[in-house]
Specification:
Structural class: mainly alpha
Organism: Terrapene triunguis (Three-toed box turtle)
InterPro entries: TMC, TMC_dom
Oligomer: single chain
Strand content: under 5%
Keywords: Membrane, Transmembrane, Transmembrane helix
Order of helices and strands: HHHHHHHHHHHHHHHEHHEHHHHHHHH
Family: Belongs to the TMC family.
Radius of gyration: 46 Å
Largest sheet: 2 strands, parallel
Strand order of the largest sheet: 1-2
GO molecular function: mechanosensitive monoatomic ion channel activity; voltage-gated calcium channel activity
Length: 836
């Protein structure tokens, strides 16, 4: 039987081979015939193309379109999904934790894929529209990117600031960004004053030399153009549109009937209003940006590890300093944690800090007294003749020298306090702020004494002027001449001291002297020092770069505070000298170029590079305080002091604000004047102020409540995290205990034997080997795995049977068990009372 079966099988195999050979030969013949036919068709098509090229092009396009349309919907959807995935990969490529080489390779591959297959997502005519739409979308994205680059290029000094930022970090660049912001604010203020006050007076006002306030006195005309006189802002500059006294008190000027006094007053108020609005808006924007900085109290080391690096640094030296700064900050945090538990001599520390504060208070009082003494002395010098250059500029020189030498003295005294560097920096900034503010207000108080003296002098000169005019016209009348006497020459008219112009001249002198001292300090203290260290280091006894004097670092705090106080002087002096804002615009413009050059050529990066985002609002807060303190003297002079009788747009009025009442009374209807009179009543103003104070108090209380709720939520989140950690720890301990119990139960499980496979089990195994059985087993396994890990590991239910299995089958079953599988429980067939 076996031999016959083998022969039949061999015969069948040989028959199959023959049939396969015949079939293959037929297929080969058919393929050859098809190739011949295609060749013939190709030759015919070539001939047709030579004869009719237009028909050939149309047929090729039709074939291409038919090939493209041959893509099925499934392939199109799959291709669309792939294109979307590639686009998503391109957009999220920066966030991938891959090497740069891999990122670039995948980016090029994804871009090529998108460009190749993006146009195949349409059908027929829709494909062309889709391709056109995608082309326009790409061009629109490119246009927006180019327009953003164009806007960046249009930002003043953007590339110059980026260069400084790459070499010195964002902390030094923050000063130049602040300087650019101040330049923009002053440019707007200059546009207001120049366009609404200076230009109308020059174009439509009374020309120069027609009235006394616009004419140089006869006694000063000989030296009015001398450089020494012009340097002191006397002569022709004093009687120009730069200062308050040049403007006439005519209610309307020119054919436009332009109300110059009203415009002068409103522009002076709008200078403070616009500045206040811009500063508060910048503070609010910085506060919104700083909300994402994170909490410094929680996860201190994590924040320092992942957020301390300044990615805008492009200089290796600055990068090394930043690396050292981060290392130092870690060491400081560790030392702070260690020293918080140490005992120290608190009494000695307190004594040294009190001593340092007493010394600094003495320095502040001494500087204030010195400025007051110098200002009073300059008043006596102003009454003398033939005084020298130092006597004329003594006030400005003393204030500039105090601002130069007092901050290093404060820093030396602060070494006694042994504060943390961050706390010490805040104390240093506060003391320099107090120095500048005390000097400025001492200067103002001494200047107010001078103003009061000039007001008493004005009363006498006003009477002299009236008597001079009266006697001149009376003498002509007594001569009985029919011809009217010629008017007195404006240069010969007696005139008052014009205290507003005097105050404006003092502010202009102070601003110009501050500019010169700043530039000389940069030139000598930075550039010449850097040249000396650079070229003399080769032949010196010690290393000048590493030791004394070394290269200078850029003083961020000192420069920012100097800029803030200079702006305070501009705000105070712009009401009395409208041209002062123009001088400040030129100062800021030259400072940007000069200080950028000095930083790049003469300074070195700081040993500790700080991020600038922490200090923006601090500087803005100081600027807001200076703005408020600058408003007080101007408001006092407007509301309390009488204007000069012969100069300025408010001459002839009791107070400067009377121009508003005059305009309302003459140019507005009667009921509006009544409304303004009721609004200006103190009975309404005081309750309104109280209501504002209550609203501020309420909003502050709400903000504190929100802050308290925020801290409580943070505490709850921390407690929840701790509870989750405890739960995870408890699970780990319980799982280890269960594992120990399993290890103890394993030997008893090994001693348990398996049952003999019955006929039902055999049938089950045959079913599993069949394809249907495999699918059923896979379904059952999927059900088991989907039910959970605990159910998959659970032992099968015990079924009690009467006949125990044989021992040989038990042992053979254990030998066939797969290694690494889960240990199973006792198999069915073992009752409690059954012997092993």
């Amino acid at each position: 039987m076996n031999d016959s079966d083998g022969e039949s099988e061999a015969g069948e195999a040989s028959g199959k081979k023959k049939r396969d050979k015949k079939a293959s030969s037929k297929d080969q013949k058919e393929a050859e015939n098809k190739e011949k036919q295609t060749k013939k068709k190709g030759k015919e098509q070539d001939k047709k193309q030579k004869k009719n090229p237009a028909e050939s092009s149309s047929s090729s396009s039709a074939s291409n379109s038919s090939d493209e349309e041959s893509l099925s919907e499934e392939e199109l959807t799959r291709l669309k999904e792939q294109v979307e995935e590639k686009k998503k990969l391109i957009s999220t490529m920066r966030n991938k934790p891959w090497r740069m080489v891999k990122k670039l390779a995948l980016l090029r591959e994804a871009q090529a894929f998108v460009e190749k297959f993006e146009g195949a997502l349409g059908k027929g005519k829709g494909k062309k529209f889709y391709a056109y739409k995608m082309m326009m979308a790409k061009k629109w994205v490119k246009f927006k990117r180019d327009f953003d680059n164009f806007k960046t290029q249009c930002i003043p000094w953007e590339m110059k600031i980026k260069e400084v930022e790459s070499h010195f970090g964002s902390s030094v660049a923050s000063y130049f960004i602040f300087l650019r912001w101040m330049y923009g604010v002053n440019l707007v203020l200059f546009g207001l004053i120049f366009g609404l006050v200076i230009i109308p007076e020059i174009l439509m006002g009374i020309p120069y030399g027609s009235i006394p306030r616009k004419t140089v006195p006869r006694a000063e005309q000989a030296t009015a153009m001398d450089f020494s006189v012009l340097w002191d802002f006397e002569g022709y500059i004093k009687y120009s549109a730069v200062f308050y006294g040049y403007y006439n008190n005519q209610r309307t000027i020119g054919w436009l009937k332009y109300r110059l006094p009203m415009a002068y007053f409103m522009v002076g108020v709008s200078v403070f209003g616009y500045s206040l609005m811009v500063v508060i808006r910048s503070m609010a924007r910085n506060a919104n940006e700083n909300t994402g900085d994170g909490d410094d109290n929680n996860f201190t080391f994590s924040w320092k590890m992942f957020t301390s690096w300044d990615y805008l640094i492009g200089n290796p030296e600055t990068a090394d300093n930043k690396f050292a700064s981060i290392t130092t900050s870690f060491k400081e945090s560790i030392v702070d944690e260690q020293e918080s538990n140490k005992d120290e001599n608190i009494h000695l520390r307190r004594f040294l800090r009190v001593l340092a504060n007493v010394l600094i208070i003495c320095c502040l009082c001494g500087s204030g007294y010195l400025i007051y003494f110098v200002v009073k002395r300059s008043q006596t010098f102003s009454k003398m003749q033939n005084i020298g250059w130092y006597e004329r500029n003594e006030v400005e020189i003393v204030m500039s020298l105090l601002g130069m030498f007092c901050p290093p003295l404060f820093e030396t005294i602060a070494a006694l306090e042994e504060y943390h560097p961050r706390i010490g920096l805040k104390w240093q900034l506060g003391r320099i702020f107090a120095l500048f503010l005390g000097n400025l207000y001492t200067f103002l108080l001494a200047l107010m004494d001078d103003v009061n003296e000039k007001l008493t002098e004005e009363v006498v000169i006003k009477n002299i002027t009236h008597w001079t005019l009266l006697s001149y016209y009376n003498s002509s009348a007594m001569n009985d001449s029919a011809v009217t006497p010629p008017p007195i020459d404006p240069a010969d008219m007696p005139r008052g001291p014009c205290w507003e112009t005097t105050v404006g001249i003092e502010f202009v002198r102070l601003t110009v002297s501050d500019i010169l001292v700043t530039y000389v300090t940069i030139l000598v203290g930075d550039f010449i020092r850097a040249c000396f260290v650079r070229f003399v280091n080769y032949c010196w006894c010690w290393d000048l770069e590493a030791g004394f004097p070394s290269y200078a670092e850029f003083d961020i705090s000192g420069n920012v505070l100097g800029l803030i106080f200079n702006q305070g002087m501009i705000w105070m002096g712009s009401f009395y000298a409208p041209g002062l804002v123009g001088i400040n615009v030129l100062r800021l413009l030259t400072s940007m170029y000069f200080q950028c050059w000095a930083v790049m050529s003469s300074n070195v990066p700081h040993e500790r590079v700080f991020k600038a985002s922490k200090s923006n609002n601090f500087y803005m807060g100081l600027l807001l305080l200076i703005l408020f303190l600058s408003l007080l003297p101007v408001a006092y002079t407007i509301m309390s002091l009488p204007p000069s009788f012969d100069c300025g747009p408010f001459s002839g009025k009791k107070r400067m604000y009377d121009v508003i009442q005059e305009t309302i009374r003459q140019d507005f209807p009667l009921f509006i004047a009544k409304i303004f009179s009721y609004v200006a009543n103190p009975g309404l103003i005081i309750p309104a102020v109280l209501l504002m104070v209550l609203a501020i108090y309420y909003l502050n209380a709400v903000a504190e409540a929100y802050q308290h709720a925020n801290t409580e939520l943070k505490k709850k989140m921390q407690m929840q995290r701790d509870e989750e950690k405890n739960k995870r720890n408890n699970k780990a301990t319980t799982s280890s205990a269960i594992q120990d119990l399993d290890d103890l139960l394993v030997p008893s499980a090994k001693s348990v034997s398996q049952p003999k496979p019955t006929e039902e089990n055999k049938s089950d195994s045959t079913r599993r080997n069949s394809p249907a059985g495999k699918e059923g087993s896979m379904a059952r396994n999927s059900n088991l795995t989907s039910s959970g890990r605990g159910e998959m590991l659970a032992p099968p239910p015990c079924v009690t049977i009467t006949r125990p299995p044989r021992p040989s089958l038990r042992t053979s079953h254990h030998r066939q068990s797969k290694p690494g599988a889960y240990q199973q429980g006792p198999y069915p067939g073992m009752g409690r009372g059954q012997p092993h």
